[in-house]
């Protein structure tokens, strides 16, 4: 019985880790991810720091999903600065990432 419960909990944890928790707002669909080279033609408006859960229970979430959710949050947050582009400042670190927000032509 205990083994069965453990297996169910592990399976549920993996199922949860595959879910996307962050949705892109319709307004943020126009915000794009740009490279450092592309940012040179844009005006820096500020920075935004975004965070998501990198683990569920004791299991690490899929790195690609975490990265995608962080980008989605940054795109949503860019609207608060009237930005239309974002560029990551550093790599993802334990579910946290900093992005620069730009206004590009």
Count of separate structural domains? 1
Going by helix content, strand content and strand pairing, the class is alpha+beta
Q: Count the DSSP helices.
A: 3
Report Rg.
Answer: 17 Å
What's the arrangement of strands in the largest beta sheet? 1-5-6-2
Query: What proportion strand?
Result: 25-35%
Morphology: elongated
Instruction: Give the proportion of residues in helices.
Output: 25-40%
Q: If you had to describe this structure to a student in words, what would you say it looks like?
A:
This protein has helices spanning 2-17, 36-39, 63-78, and strands at residues 32-33, 43-51, 55-56, 59-60, 85-88, 96-103. The chain has a single domain, classed as Translation Initiation Factor IF3 (2-Layer Sandwich), CATH 3.30.110. With 105 residues, the protein is α+β, with helices and mostly antiparallel strands. Helices cover 34% and strands 26% of the residues. 23% of the residues are buried. A four-stranded mixed beta sheet has the order 1-5-6-2. Strands 3-4 form a two-stranded antiparallel sheet. Residues 13-18 have low confidence and may be disordered.
